[in-house]
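Problem 12. The chain below contains 351 residues. Write out its predicted structure in token notation.
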Amino acid sequence: MKYPAVLTFDTLLPTLGEFDAIIDARSESEFALDHLPGAINCPVLDDSQRILVGTTYKQVNAFEAKKIGAPIVAHNIARHIETLWHDKPRDWRPLVYCWRGGNRSGSMVHILARIGWPVIQLEGGYKAYRAHVSAALETPPALDWRVVCGTTGSGKSRLLETLDTIGAQVLDLEQLAAHRGSVLGNLPSEPQPSQKMFESRIWNKLRSFDPALPVFVESESKKVGNLRVPEAVMVAMRASPCISLALSRPNRVRLLTQDYSHFVADPSSLNAQLEHLVLLHGRAKIAAWHAMANSGQMATLVDELLVEHYDPAYVKSIDRNFAQFKDARVVELGDIGAADFMAAARALHPA
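Solution.
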């Protein structure tokens, strides 16, 4: 094969994990929105440089834009080689892409190939990858879904995490979305990804699953925080066999108090989230819940939220959305310790 070689995403997909590096040559903001799984960001033009070149192209002409851009591109590629790849052996095999597989990735692969590395350029760039992901999520693989259902605080996420540790196939949508799935579900230290990144993460997990083995997933709604679960994935989940995870209400309160401990340190953020419930519960009730949060009565507040908000909503939702819930396998948790979740996971996924 002559290098740099230019190959389509469909051609590359079966061996995507075999590259020594997947290099995204786009700017840092483009990369942050979404990128190929495992890619590293090595901009040929960073955000400010891309604006400069693009503005010159529009306001002056292409020739002047290229005169400005060429030395910047050369300098950036040289820096990447010196700082990241100088020690790479002759058989180091990178895949490089940009937005459409044009000038930015083309400049980089030309130099890397001239050095002697067997570099591949993705034809069509990120745009081709994104088209593949969108199409794949419209017709996801037929999988043996097992939907973990249960009232808020019953430990569904902890069970999925435990199943994952013992080698079960798990699609943890809340983990992929960086959100716990309820009105209080924002993670204080991690913003949610973009919708495209969320879909990339789902696609990457789905393609790794063995269709002959079950895939455990939580009974999510169509949105996890601000992100939408792909429609075809939701349809498949909602038609699948269910597992009903049962935990006593006192233990659910304990579990949620642990999971939402950050609200104890910052009750103002909890109160801001509770404001979203005013239309459902009225200003007086929200004011009472604010007072509980401010005075550190987290266990009492959580118990009231379960009784007056979460549990009624769950009862209305589960039968309507998950057709096989009435025949669900019940899994009882006696407590919320690691051993309790391991026992439940082993019952569902024997070694």
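Discussion. The chain has two domains: 5-135, 143-348. Students who got a different answer should revisit the alignment rule from Section 12.3.
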